[in-house]
Amino acid sequence: MFHSRVISLKTFRVEEVALNERICLQVRSQCSVSSTNPSDAVEMCTVPPEGDPESAVTRLQCIWYNLCQMNCTWLPGKKAPPGTNYALYYWYSPLEKSLQCANYYTEGELIGCSFDLLKGKVSGSEKIQIMVTDTAGTIRPSYNITFLNSVKPEHPVITALSFQNDSLYVEWESPENFESNCLVYQVEITDSKPELYKAEESKNKCHISQTPQDLPGNSKDKNCFVISDVDRDTLYTVRVRAKASKYCFEDKNLWSAWSPEKSIGQKPDPTFYTITLLSIPVAISISTLLLLLYLKRLKIIIFPPIPDPGKIFKEMFSDQNDDTLHWKKCDIYEKQIKEEIDSVVLVENLKKTSQ
């Protein structure tokens, strides 16, 4: 619950509040500031907006883009009818009456609308009153008061990228509408992996002489950043983004989009690396095979094979056994022939005796 008490000699009070809920005001009088006996309070309350509270939009927020355009986004209420046509109205002190936003858009589930709001027409402490309803009046209106401290700058533009000795030099232009000390930058340089560098404009201001094209009324602030110890034979990709400095606006970490990338250096040939990677295992395999063959031959030369005595004696005994068997076969054969001859002689003698 919000409670605010003010003692004043004026007979009126102006306070900007969002009218989403019932608001009550009380007024009483007293003789002096230190008086302990004030009068009875007179109270008056506002009527809350009509409609179902769950039909009102949610997550209503507005961001001042590049100090020239207000972007407001919201989500439809849970009980909002399908196909609701939303209407956004805005007002700030120089305007005589509220104006309706005309540039509606969608970002996924978010619905948004943007309207021009140049820095020269409002001050940094100005408040913008926002109301979102629908054209048919079927949803509950939603109110919001936006302070001009949520600022999101446009992305920077890289204007130069070069090697200087062993350093990489990056130069870019600041977004328009910002003073020189109201932006902080982040530089991303990628070779094998991205690396982020913080660059504050006040510490990295480049002193560059104006060319004939840089007229005094149209020139932009240029900034630079130097990365040391770089390799010219490596491909570097650079991009930059910015956010409003806490010295000028409330720091809500609203970074701009990244600038378009720029590259410098030489991109390695993938064919060379592919051939190298394929040839290494082949070369290792061939070298290993040749080394094994060489070691085997070297072993034979240094350590020649020694004859096995057991094998020699085995062969000798094997030959003797063969000769003995041959001799036995010859004796058996000669005995058989002698027996046959004796048998023939005996038969012949018997024949002669019978005659």
What do you see in this structure?
There is one protein chain. It is built from 2 helices and 18 strands. It is α+β, with helices and mostly antiparallel strands. The strands form 5 sheets. A 5-stranded mixed beta sheet has the order 7-8-4-3-11, with no helix packed on it. Strands 6-5-9-10 form a 4-stranded antiparallel beta sheet, with no helix packed on it. The longest helix is centred in the C-terminal third of the chain and has 46 residues. The radius of gyration is 52 Å and the shape is elongated. The protein starts with 23 loop residues before the first strand and ends with a helix.
Describe how the helices and strands are arranged.
Elements (H helix, E strand, L loop, with lengths): L23 E4 L14 E4 L12 E8 L3 E7 L10 E6 L7 E2 L2 E5 L2 E7 L10 E8 L7 E6 L3 E2 L4 E8 L2 E7 L9 E8 L3 E7 L21 E6 L8 E9 L17 E3 L5 H33 L6 H46 L1
